[in-house]
Amino acid sequence: xxxxxxxxxxxxxxxxxxxxxxxxxxxxxxxxxxxxxxxxxxxxxxxxxxxxxxxxxxxxxxxxxxxxxxxxxxxxxxxxxxxxxxxxxxxxxxxxxxxxxxxxxxxxxxxxxxxxxxxxxxxxxxxxxxxxxxxxxxxxxxxxxxxxxxxxxxxxxxxxxxxxxxxxxxxxxxxxxxxxxxxxxxxxxxxxxxxxxxxxxxxxxxxxxxxxxxxxxxxxxxxxxxxxxxxxxxxxxxxxxxxxxxxxxxxxxxxxxxxxxxxxxxxxxxxxxxxxxxxxxxxxxxxxxxxxxxxxxxxxxxxxxxxxxxxxxxxxxxxxxxxxxxxxxxxxxxxxxxxxxxxxxxxxxxxxxxxxxxxxxxxxxxxx
Length: 368
Ligand code: ACO
Description:
Blueprint: E1 3-12, E2 17-19, H1 20-24, H2 31-38, E3 42-44, H3 52-67, E4 76-80, H4 91-99, E5 105-109, H5 115-128, E6 134-141, H6 152-155, E7 161-170, E8 175-183, E9 191-192, H7 204-208, E10 215-216, H8 218-240, E11 249-252, H9 257-267, H10 278-281, H11 288-298, E12 307-314, E13 318-325, H12 338-362
Parallel strand pairs: 4-5, 4-6, 11-12
Antiparallel strand pairs: 1-7, 2-3, 6-7, 8-13, 9-10, 12-13
Helix pairs in contact: 3-4, 8-9
The chain binds acetyl coenzyme *A.
């Protein structure tokens, strides 16, 4: 029997820090209000020319190095994102090219902030069936580019960043134990970027009426989130045959400190059982859970053998929880230097573009 183990992890956040004090100068708000209502103190914002694929590539390379896995051995790259670089091509394909995952299929997954949990479960299922051995799952966001910086209801909440996991097959029991994925499209209107898709393509009107920005009914999303976090955690534990007491650490989506407190109350667990870093990064959507996992490992709060639950919610509405036994890197025979593959990947990408260009000239086309 095959198990899907999390063997590598990595994160990347932009250098630019936006504090509550900075926001006080932009909209009518206060550091006190933001801290009390959300727990957020600061968030990271991508600089000009820094995009989701850049952050994703950086997080992915760390995760591969941690797993001691060559990008060429990957068979699948899933990028969960709510702020992809383009409608298409998928951000996952841009990452696949940059890291040189030459044998991997690549696609983006859209399930808003629950996306990372959905993507880990998709990769884990593929591994458990024996369809593939090595997968890369990324959550990456530049939501700051969809935020209306004049809207105090939303601009205080979001930040940019990326996190990545490597999942690998092993016959050793452990890894991803269970997952519950849920959705309720009747709440689609509660959190959305209304325009930019095929229903409302970009036009002067959509731009002027702010339809390309995040629109949110904060109170309703808050009520929904507090309801589903504890409930889906219990469901995932039940499917895995675990009890709440078996869990070492819960890593929730980092949207609002009060939502995490409500989940702790719902599960009758102390807050110490939850990883919290929303204060430093705000809501980084699909990236928030893997970033929190990376910091939990770094802080020594997550060790091999520990039972954990990842739990999140988001637009859609979507929500989900995933129970796992933390593994860490699998034993390896030789050390892989992942960075060296990046140079090869760049050369390969240039070579393929060049060949396409020459073919285009030969066949009378000018596309590259
Ligand atoms: N500064 C000061 N006052 C503010 C601010 C602000 N930044 N934002 C709102 N207010 C005001 C409101 O206008 C309102 O004033 P009013 O009563 O005169 O109308 C008052 O504060 C209270 O507003 P509420 O909406 O009731 O505040 P609440 O305590 O619910 O907090 C918040 C708002 C933080 C948005 C909360 O509802 C929340 O976190 N909701 C969940 C949002 C979320 O997690 N979204 C992401 C989902 S994941 C994804 O898919 C991307």
